[in-house]
Amino acid sequence: MAELRKNEKDGITYYTAPQLEPYRDLAHGFFTRRGGVSGGVYDSLNFRFSSEDTQSNVLENHRRAGALLGADESKIVRTLQKHTDNILVIRGEYIPYDPSEPVDAIVTDVRGLCLTAYFADCQVVMLYDNKKKVCAIVHAGWRGVVNGIVKKTIQKMTDIFGCKAKDISAAVGPSICRRCFECDEDVPILLSQAYDRHMSEYIYKDGKKWHVDLKNITYVALTSSGISPINIDVSSLCPCCTTSEELWWSHRRHKEQRGVQGAMIMIK
Ligand SMILES: [Zn+2]
Description:
Order of helices and strands: EEEHEEEEEEHHEEHEEHEHE
Number of domains: 1
Bound molecules: zinc ion
Number of strands: 15
Radius of gyration: 17 Å
Mean pLDDT: 95
Strand content: 25-35%
C-alpha cells in the first residue's frame, strides 16, 4: 500500500496511484481544484454541473482534465451520483445513457471511454484488471459504503467480464478522514447492520459524536472481495483537513459554497 503521488501537468495538479501507474494502456487521475477555468468559489477545476458555475466552464474543465489523460471530449462518460448502488456497465459501443438516472459506479472494457466520478469528501475508488483489460470507477460516500457499492462493482467485474479478484488493482482517492467524519449514532447503526463483523474496530465515540473510519472499511471491503492487500493504494489525504495548499473542496468545510473535484480513468 503506497501513498498517491502528486503531479503537475498543463497547469493541472492531480494525483495518481503507484498501483495503477505501471499499466501503459491505462490513464487515470484524481484531480484537485487547480488547473481549470472557473472563478469565485468554483476556482478553478470545478466538475460540478449542479452549481451556479456556468455549464461552459464545467464542460471546459472536464475537457481539460480528459485531455490530460488523452481522452476525446466526446468519450467522457458522466453520471448523476446519488449515493445509490446503481452500476452502469458499458460493453462494446458506448451508447450515452439517460443522465437523469442516478448511477454511482461505471464498469467498462471499451477502450477510449473516460469514466468520470465526482468527489468533495466522498471516496472515489478505481479498479483495474490488466489481464482482462476492464476498469471501473466508484463513488462511495458513507451511504455507498453502507450499500456495499464497492463490493457490488467488483462482483460485476467478475460476473460479467470474467475478471479474477486477484488480478484487480485498486486505488482509493483523497477522502474524508476519521477525525473529520463526525456523525450521529444513525451512521454507526446503519454500518453495523450492513457489515456484521468487526465494525466496532472502525467506529469510535468522542464526546457526544461518533467517528467512522471509512477508508479502512473500504480497504476491508476490497480485501474481503479477494483483492490482494499488495494491490491496493489508499490515500491518506483528506479534503476537509488538508488545507495547506487549498487544493481541495470539502463538503464538510465549505458547505454548499464550493465546486467538486473530478476523477477519471480510461483504458487507452
Ligand atoms: Zn480530515
